[in-house]
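Researcher: We plan to redesign the surface later, but first we want a full-length starting point. Tokens attached.
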């Protein structure tokens, strides 16, 4: 199995969808199908159960995914290390973040430019509806995003920020006056749909498709930017979990934020493309590791 076939297998294991896998890897769905079929013929076993409605890993496929992922990441790290030439950081680093999260990165940005006077940082914004487009479109060198990140072509760097979560509801909503809520309440309400381009595992980390008790969470109107989310919520068309920093930075006359008590904290991490790991990216990540994660 060559590296490209491993990459296709691991991506399909994450997405469980041939079309989305093809989009992420910039290949045709037929190329994905051919690669998986070839792997299954060579191994003499089925790695994915396919129907017209769903794709699922078989037990053998799940074991192979776990075994291959670690090895693949080690290979990629080794290749990246071998390509390093000892260049010193210089020039502009493009840092992408969602909304005001870029502001929270200022301590790391300042430490980076102080240690490397020949460098500057240009901050960019990206929307959650296209979480890795800025990196893959070469609009950013490194970005701050919430974990988990399971993209074969993306390096997961150090954790930089942590925070709790809140439920955004319309100001007149029945939950607006609560001191706190459980994530279980999502089973009683419609939530915002973040669009088909968002990887399923990444969306699930913020807006689950089922409550802890197993109830389905109904998707409603599509919103592709944070301000579209606020407008949808203010109209009473949906509720949605958000990161807790919105209470400090985004007051809205039609929206109330209620703390969610029983979900893990959001962990914000640095991420960058393996094939574009520059001296500037490595230096920025190193300073972020030294600075450590900060609660916001």
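Model: Full-length starting sequence:
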């Amino acid at each position: 199995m060559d590296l490209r076939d491993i990459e296709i297998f691991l991506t399909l294991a994450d997405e469980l969808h041939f079309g989305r896998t093809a989009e992420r890897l910039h290949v045709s769905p037929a190329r994905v199908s051919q690669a998986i079929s070839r792997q299954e013929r060579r191994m003499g076993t089925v790695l994915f159960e396919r129907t017209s409605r769903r794709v699922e890993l078989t037990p053998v496929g799940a074991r192979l995914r776990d075994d291959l992922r670690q090895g693949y990441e080690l290979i990629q790290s080794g290749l990246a290390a071998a390509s390093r030439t000892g260049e010193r950081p210089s020039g502009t680093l493009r840092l992408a973040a969602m909304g005001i999260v870029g502001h929270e990165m200022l301590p790391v940005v300042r430490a980076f430019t102080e240690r490397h006077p020949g460098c500057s940082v240009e901050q960019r914004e990206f929307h959650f509806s296209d979480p890795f487009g800025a990196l893959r479109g070469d609009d950013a060198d490194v970005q701050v995003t919430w974990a988990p990140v399971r993209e074969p072509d993306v390096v997961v760097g150090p954790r930089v920020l942590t925070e709790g979560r809140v439920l955004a509801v319309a100001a007149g909503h029945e939950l607006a006056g609560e001191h706190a809520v459980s994530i279980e309440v999502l089973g009683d309400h419609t939530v915002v749909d973040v669009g088909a381009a968002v990887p399923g595992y990444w969306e699930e980390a913020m807006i689950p498709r089922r409550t802890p008790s197993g109830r389905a969470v109904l998707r409603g109107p599509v919103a592709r930017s944070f301000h579209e989310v606020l407008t949808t919520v203010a109209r009473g068309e949906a509720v949605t979990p958000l990161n807790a920093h919105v209470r400090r930075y985004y007051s809205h006359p039609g929206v109330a934020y209620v703390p969610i008590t029983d979900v893990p904290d959001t962990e914000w991490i640095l991420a960058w493309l393996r094939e574009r790991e520059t001296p500037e990216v490595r230096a920025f990540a190193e300073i972020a590791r030294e600075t450590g994660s900060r609660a916001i």
